[in-house]
Amino acid sequence: MAPIDANDETADENDDDDRRGALPDEGGTATPGRAPVPTGRDEGPAATPGVTGARRPGAPDSPETAESASSKEAASREAAESSSSKEAARSAAPAEPGAPGARMPRWLPRALVLALALYACFQLGNWAFHQLIGLLVNILLAFFLALAIEPAVGRMAARGMRRGLATFIVFFGVLIVGVGFVVLLGSMLAGQIVDMVENFPKYLDSLINWANQHFHTELSRVEVQDSVLRSGWLQKYVQNSAAGVLDVSATLLGGLFKLLTIFLFAFYFAADGPRLRRALCSVLPPAKQTEVLRAWEIAVDKTGGYLYSRGLMALISGVAHFVLFEILGIPYAPALAVWVGLVSQFIPTIGTYLAGALPMLIAFTVDPWYALWVLVFVVVYQQFENYMLQPKLTSKTVDIHPAVAFGSVIAGTALLGAVGALIAIPAVATLQAFLGAYVKRYDVTDDPRVHGHRRYGEAVVARLQKALHHKKEQAEKGQGKQGRG
Predict the structure, then answer these.
(1) In this structure, are residues 339 and 354 in contact, taking their beta carbons and an 8 Å threshold?
(2) 262 closest CA partner among 355, 346, 349, 145
(3) Residue 39, SS3?
(4) Which of 10, 129, 211, 398 is the most buried (most CB within 10 A)?
(5) Could you write out the DSSP letters of every residue in 95-116?
(6) Which of 131, 192, 212, 484 shows the shortest CA–CA distance to 365?
């Protein structure tokens, strides 16, 4: 074995020191006598090349250095992820209204525009409805008039007549009846006014004579006439009447225009009834078409039946009152008979008494006893009509209770005025018939209480049985107590 040289041992120790390098102290400075260890900072050109402690490029890192580098990278990634998540949360969370970075939600402008558009549409529809309310009422009245004349037009069309011509004939007959009624009433009122003007001096003389006799005055007709003609209230009345003539003329022209509008729409509804029904059913499924046609048929039957039954009763009433007026010698008997017949039939419940007031007033001018006879006849005929004539004529057309009819007229008047009062009864009758077609009815039990008769005998027997049963229970309890004693 060769001897070991001391120089060789010294060289080996230096090589080990070069490979390990100098370990840094706590302050980061190298231990004296050893090469400094790089701290990871770029020293730049000041770094001395060839230092034995520097890590050579491509040399493998030690395990401690790799672990520290990986932990630093993981910590940096976690910090970046946490900062990005915080920024996303701040952007997603709604900002406070007063915050500098607060923004308006995207849906708010669209919601405001939609709300304003809906409000504008509502205001426009409300304004249009109030502007067209008169036209809508006229169309409603025309529709009921067309339903009323539909049976007559249908019968004429079924016999081969053109529907438009049949509608014109029916309307022409209605127009003749209406004009005749107005002419009769106008002639009666005009005659009464002329008589009052001609007999005014006689009435004034009789009044002055009565005042002179009872109050011991010395009035004369000439003085009274002069004082009346020179009075201020008469002049104001004449001026107001002159101004009112224009208002009356405008009202008459407006009424004629409304009447023409109603007749025109009613003519189109009646003449083009089948076409209107086809157009309405074309937008509905077959099941709904059947229901609409059934409702239409019920409305035609009830409205037409109401008009025809009331017209027949008006004719009978007018003839009966005309005979009475002729017997008593009351003037204007034909006009008064037409007035009583129409008003008493087309104004329910109180129409008869309103119609009888005018003939009673005119009969009173002839003889006070004649007015009493007219009142008695009106009351008697009303009972005859309610209990004998009306049930037979309206049992198959408009069979509604008088209280329901009166209430419907009041409701119609409150909603649509005179037009509502006119169409209230046929509308309620149509609704009643339409609901009756879908409401299931059952047989009523044979019980006297249904007819308003209480079972007094059975109630007394039940009370006696209850009392006897109670006494029997008390007796049994008493016997049981005695047995236990």
Answers:
(1) no
(2) 145
(3) coil
(4) 398
(5) PPTTSTT----THHHHHHHHHH
(6) 192
pLDDT digits over 78-125, tens only? Answer: 766 666 666 555 555 555 555 555 677 888 888 999 999 999 999 999
CA-CA distance, 191 to 189, in Å (whole number)?
A: 5
Are 94 and 78 a contacting pair, CB within 8 Å? no
Candidates 429, 409, 256, 388; CA nearest to 346 is 409
Q: Distance between the two ends of the chain, CA-based, in angstroms?
A: 139
Q: How far apart are CA 351 and CA 348, in angstroms?
A: 5
Backbone angles phi, psi at 30, to 5 degrees: -75, 150
Q: For residues 402-436, b (16+ Cβ closer than 10 Å) or e, as one string?
A: eeebeebbeebeeebeebbbbbbbbbbbbbbbbee
**Residue 400 identity:** I
Sign of CA dihedral 307, 308, 310, 315: positive
How many Cβ atoms are within 10 Å of 141's Cβ, its own excluded?
21
**Mean pLDDT of all residues belonging to the chain:** 75
Tokens standing for 177?
């009846």
What interhelical angle do 333-346 and 351-366 show, nearest 10? Answer: 160
Tokens of 263: 């007749």
Tokens found for residue 37: 């260890």
Distance CA 202, CA 312 (A): 44
Q: Which residues of the chain have pLDDT under 70?
A: 1-70, 72, 79-102, 228-229, 234-235, 238, 241-245, 348-349, 394-399, 437, 447-462, 464, 480-485
Tokens of 6: 């001391």
Q: Is the pTM of this model over 0.90?
A: no
For helices 163-198 and 200-215, what crossing angle results, to 10°?
Answer: 40
Please report how many Cα atoms fall inside a 13 Å half-sphere around the Cα of residue 296, on the Cβ side.
19
- Answer yes or no: are the C-beta atoms of 389 and 396 closer than 8 Å: no
Structure tokens at 142: 């025309």
Give the total residue count for the chain. 485
